[in-house]
Amino acid sequence: MRNNEYSTSLTVQDFRDRLAGVNGRIAAAATASGRSPSEVRLIPVSKTVSEDRIRLAVEAGCTVLGENKVQEMTRKAQAMEDLDVSWLLIGHLQTNKARDAAAYAAEFHALDSLRLAAALDRRLQGAGRSLDVFVQVNTSGEESKFGLAPEDLPDFLEALPSFETLRVRGLMTLAALTPDRDRVRSCFALLRTLRDQARENNPDLIGPGELSMGMSGDYELAIEQGATSVRVGQAIFGARAVPDSHYWPPA
Ligand SMILES: *Cc1c(COP(=O)(O)O)cnc(C)c1O
Fold it and tell me: Which of 12, 23, 48, 225 is 20 to 30 A (C-alpha) from 64?
């Protein structure tokens, strides 16, 4: 689907309708794959969305919100401290911004270096907190995507237990940005295979082995391939003016 086909949600009722629509499609995709809809969690992604519309979305039932950039997440978390909502950081994080992530994120979905793991661990120790993390893997081979190369995952998982504040929940990926559904499906299938191999090697290193994958344009395919969390922005909030290249800069 093209970005401009997502119209902007402006009222609580708009958000209720959108959330019901997406949840319905999630349930149908899960059932079609012989899975229970309750195995799939919807993470609404509120990046670039203003505080007033986020408040409407929360009123409509959102209890977790995904943000790509830590500065934006921090600003919003501080401005909306009165809301009962958890902020999930789903985008690339620079080591020098680990402190805000450690302070405000309930989950981090883009862990992709040991340097970053060390920086987060140090900040979390200081804050007396722990953090649920997903290891990001580059399953598309596109240079513009962040994440570990698939072959680097086993050693990476071996090294993580030394960071005591990080609780591994599973793996995360972004599929190739292409209308070719087979190509998108193969990215998701690769993440599931990597999770299965990790479990076989040493189940202690992969925690519950969750799979964070799927966005507005491809979440049904991701569910077919085993997604346990889908990260959906535009299909709930409306099209973004900011192009995706802002989040996944060309190499
Ligand atoms: C923006 C974003 C999404 C959601 O993308 P939509 O096209 O808005 O559904 C998912 N994952 C990450 C990492 C994102 O930055």
Answer: 225
* Ligand 1 in reach of 91 Cβ (< 6 A): yes
Regarding pTM above 0.90, the answer is: yes
Q: pLDDT of 88-105, one tens digit each? A: 999 999 999 999 999 999
The CATH-assigned architecture of domain 3-240 is: Alpha-Beta Barrel (3.20)
Cβ–ligand 1 distance for 90 under 6 Å, the answer yes
Q: What stretch of H or E contains 110?
A: strand 107-111
Domain limits of the chain? 3-240
Q: Does residue 69 line the site of ligand 1, with CB under 6 A? A: no
Closest by Cα among 124, 119, 111 to 206: 111
Ligand 1 atom with the shortest distance to the CA of 244: 1
**Among 9, 25, 45, which residue has the most ligand 1 atoms within 8 Å of its CB, making it the best to mutate?**
45
